[in-house]
Amino acid sequence: MSNNNKRNNRNNGSRSQRRLALALLLLLILGAFWFLETDNPTISSIRDSFLSEESGGQNGSSEAGDAEAQETQTDGTSQAVSSPDPAALPEYNGSHYAKINGNVPAFPDEVYARAGLVSENGKWKTEGSKSGRIDSSRLVPYEYYGELDSLGRCTVAYGCLGEETMPAEGVDRGDISRIHPSGWAKGQNWERCHLIAWALSDENANERNLVTGTHYMNHDGMRPLEEEVEHYIWNTGNHVLYMARPFFSGKELVPRGVQMTVWSCEDQGKGMSFNVYCFNVTPGAEINYVNGVVTTAEQAEQEARLYVVNTRSGVFHYPSCDGAKSIYKKNRMEVTATRKELTDQGYIPCGYCEP
Ligand SMILES: [Zn+2]
To answer: What is the extent of the structural domain holding 259?
Structure first.
């Protein structure tokens, strides 16, 4: 072997080592992105607890899974509020909303700070007030609407609400029909749902304050709570800290629900205090949270799809059901039909997969 060849071999060797190192580096970077982007519930809950630890909970009630994951930028403005682990959210069980964090309000620090509230010995007070005292005159009423995220979705709305932020008497609601919140699909009976109600904020066509919501959530779930707050403010002249934020699963455009957190200031939460998650559902209907298409129970009934029938028992399943997978070959029949056609023929829907 000539000297030249030896040198070439050595060069090839170090070049391939360098390539290997580069490939490993690339893998590491991709791995880091995967860690931050993944929808894997275990990973995202690790990530969320990491994020919420970073932001810290001034009131000390930030326990794991309490849906607090506020990212605060160094300049102090609150940016994208990271979506918490969807697995930590309550499951719809027939009620309009479910309590979260034991119904105890928990706000990002900034929500208190902007209102002029400071923490002293574990109690809130207005700056310059005596210990434990929140004075109306020192509170700073305000509203904040987070920027839309990269998918055009609402992030969060919060504020210190009182008579100052409410519409003046005699003022009519403005037109909001030009706003099409993320996931809005025509002809699906969607409602433009305010994160902070008009009656509390005097906000009309503010795209940062409107999400795509069902009548069930907007009118039956959130509205009664909003009215309670409204009455409380009118009756007492007090203020409330208020936060509403939509929860999206992954990259979906229609929120799965909206968290509403309220705490009355002057009486330290004695008058109003709750922390709930309102479900963006319509009982009996199937919602595609990616594109906003709603399939009612009646429509589903008339839609032909693939079923697996056990010809021996007469029970039919969705193909994904374990019951469908365990049918003996000779009793198994795959059929594309509507649910109604099958039940009309006397077949029985499986009690487990409920086709
Ligand atoms: Zn089944």
So the answer is: 69-285
